[in-house]
Design goal:
Rossmann fold; eight-stranded mixed sheet; 8 strands
Length: 233
């Protein structure tokens, strides 16, 4: 946790610059800054390390209730756009309403007093339920900074630098190979709208051997044991 007294003797502008740099170079401290006090280095270090790794394909499989969405679908896209203002990120879930909920949390963080004290008001010209743009952007791009998506929806003509696929599978769409195939097809389609050097993060809980995580472990990673964990692929 940041101790404000460490910076008390610095001029105000320098103090803010130093805190910004500190937070943008330490994702765990950024999580604490956003007041995710239930997240600890001991319990969540593997998730945080996986997200910060240089791999272009990341798979995070943990049980429900582990704050994976708070870390990966709310804090992480916010942190990445703060670091690189021209990024285009897609938050993609099974149900569009879930993506909206995550983006709503991102906006709430951005509008909080503590956030604006350090980073300012970053609301850009797009500030909608399903998409937002940061006013720190230096390029003209048709995609928003962060956009919402869901299984069954397509983003024709859009291109993204990062796609976060959060809880694509559920009990309802993992019962059979046929229903699970729709999620796998959605994942494959998204690869076509991801930039060649882009990052795809899959976060979820296992439901069956037929689900997307099973497909990645079995057909891409060639894992015989379908266990929980974090992978680059």
């Amino acid at each position: 946790m940041i101790k404000p007294n460490v910076f008390d003797n610095l001029p105000q502008v320098s103090k803010i610059d130093i805190i910004q740099t500190f937070l943008l170079n330490n994702f765990y401290q950024f999580l604490l800054f956003l007041e995710y006090t239930d997240i600890s280095k001991y319990s969540h270090s593997e998730i945080i390390t996986c997200l910060q790794s240089p791999g272009a394909r990341k798979l995070i499989t943990v049980p429900r209730g582990c704050f994976k969405s708070s870390i990966a679908s709310i804090a992480y896209p916010l942190w990445r756009v703060l670091k690189q203002p021209n990024l285009r990120i897609l938050i993609d879930t099974e149900v569009y309403g879930n993506s909206i909920t995550y983006l709503r949390s991102v906006k709430a963080h951005m509008k909080s007093y503590s956030f604006q004290q350090i980073f300012g008001d970053l609301e850009g010209d797009v500030w909608q339920e399903g998409a937002i743009t940061f006013n720190t952007r230096t390029k003209t791009l048709k995609e928003a900074s962060i956009t919402c998506g869901a299984v069954g929806t397509t983003k024709v003509g859009q291109h993204y630098d990062i796609i976060i696929g959060d809880d694509y599978n559920s009990a309802s769409n993992s019962r059979s190979k046929e229903s699970a195939r729709g999620v796998i097809d959605h994942y494959r389609y998204n690869l076509s709208i991801l930039e060649p050097t882009g990052e795809y993060i899959i976060i979820g809980t296992r439901y069956s051997e037929n689900d997307l995580i099973g497909f990645i472990l079995r057909d891409i990673l060639n894992c015989k044991e379908l266990a929980e964990g974090n992978f680059n692929f």
